[in-house]
Specification:
4 strands, mainly alpha, 205 residues, two-stranded antiparallel sheet
């Protein structure tokens, strides 16, 4: 076989292997663009792209596919972000409602505690200690007034008894005096009558 024929066979084999490698490379990049995450897709596209001086030569199909994937990823992230923002707003609304409910509950609890620790007396809200002080003060005043009235009653009763006794003694003395006066009057009347009788007898003689 001639040298030119060898060279032709070698060239065909190199072209076949190069095409196979290029086709396999395209398949690998396409699979990566369909399966991998954005960062890995970008890294694979840059890695598999050709070099020209300080530039990278990237296939348009790969760029278009990467752009589509990037756009889809951004839309997905935006949708998730909007969903999360809605959830955050709902949570903020719920938290605000819970805070208002907690504030109201604390106010109700404080009111109940104040009502529990206070007593309404003559329309005024008093603490239990103040209420007890006032009640015991009133009881003390009432007991003092009761003791004073008992003392005054006993004193007045003693005076009344003494007055009744004095009245009885005075009535007895008056009755005795009236009886003696009546007896004296009767004696005087008898004497007067006797004297009249004597005068009549003396006149008759």
């Amino acid at each position: 076989m001639k040298l030119s024929q060898y060279l032709l066979v070698i060239s065909l084999l190199l072209s076949f292997f190069q095409n196979s490698y290029a086709q396999e490379e395209v398949i690998n990049v396409t699979e990566a663009l369909n399966k991998e995450k954005i960062k890995e897709q970008f890294d694979i596209v840059v890695k598999k792209s050709g070099n020209y001086q300080e530039y990278k030569v990237v296939k348009r199909a790969w760029l278009d596919k990467f752009k589509t994937n990037l756009s889809d990823t951004l839309k997905t992230l935006e949708s998730k972000l909007n969903t999360n923002l809605l959830k955050i707003n709902d949570l903020n609304t719920t938290i605000t409602g819970l805070q208002e409910s907690l504030t109201k509950t604390n106010q109700d609890l404080a009111s109940v505690t104040q009502e529990k620790d206070s007593i309404s007396f003559l329309g005024a809200a008093l603490t239990k200690s103040s209420y007890n002080t006032i009640i015991w003060g009133i009881i003390g005043v009432l007991l003092g007034l009761l003791a004073f009235f008992i003392f005054k009653f006993k004193n007045s009763n003693a005076i009344t008894l003494q007055a009744q006794k004095s009245l009885s003694e005075t009535e007895a003395e008056f009755e005795d005096h009236r009886r003696r006066a009546l007896e004296r009057e009767q004696k005087v009347m008898r004497k007067l009558q006797d004297e009249i009788n004597k005068q009549r007898k003396a006149g008759a003689k």
